[in-house]
Amino acid sequence: PYYVDMNQNLFLQASLHSSDQNLAVFVDTCVASPNSNDFRTLIYELIKSGCASDSTYTPFSSPRSDVARFGFNAFSFVNRYPSVYLKCELVVCRYHDYSSRCYQGCVKRFKRNSGS
């Protein structure tokens, strides 16, 4: 566990460990939950499909393509839960493959209209 005060800035880094130097990593989705075993019932989205859902979420540049860095302000679930757990989904792509998901950034998915 990592203990922080409310609204304290948290900085995270995800590193890809591979012998292939031509890979890039991208943070696609991160959700928080008060339950480490349930990321469906009560969640808070920090980022979804590469789009920040939380106003304090900030991606940071990294000197290497196989490292993703981001940060956000610490929060709690209405003071009823003592802990907050994170679950993030990252995408691994070929470095400099600009058609890959890693280089698309925020992807807004629109729902279709089910007209008559």
From TrEMBL:
<dbReference type="InterPro" id="IPR042235">
    <property type="entry name" value="ZP-C_dom"/>
</dbReference>
<dbReference type="InterPro" id="IPR055355">
    <property type="entry name" value="ZP-C"/>
</dbReference>
<keyword id="KW-0732">Signal</keyword>
<protein>
    <submittedName>
        <fullName>DMBT1 protein</fullName>
    </submittedName>
</protein>
<keyword id="KW-0325">Glycoprotein</keyword>
<keyword id="KW-1015">Disulfide bond</keyword>
<dbReference type="Pfam" id="PF00100">
    <property type="entry name" value="Zona_pellucida"/>
</dbReference>
<dbReference type="InterPro" id="IPR001507">
    <property type="entry name" value="ZP_dom"/>
</dbReference>
<dbReference type="InterPro" id="IPR017977">
    <property type="entry name" value="ZP_dom_CS"/>
</dbReference>
<keyword id="KW-0964">Secreted</keyword>
<dbReference type="GO" id="GO:0005576">
    <property type="term" value="C:extracellular region"/>
</dbReference>
<feature type="domain" description="ZP">
    <location>
        <begin position="1"/>
        <end position="109"/>
    </location>
</feature>
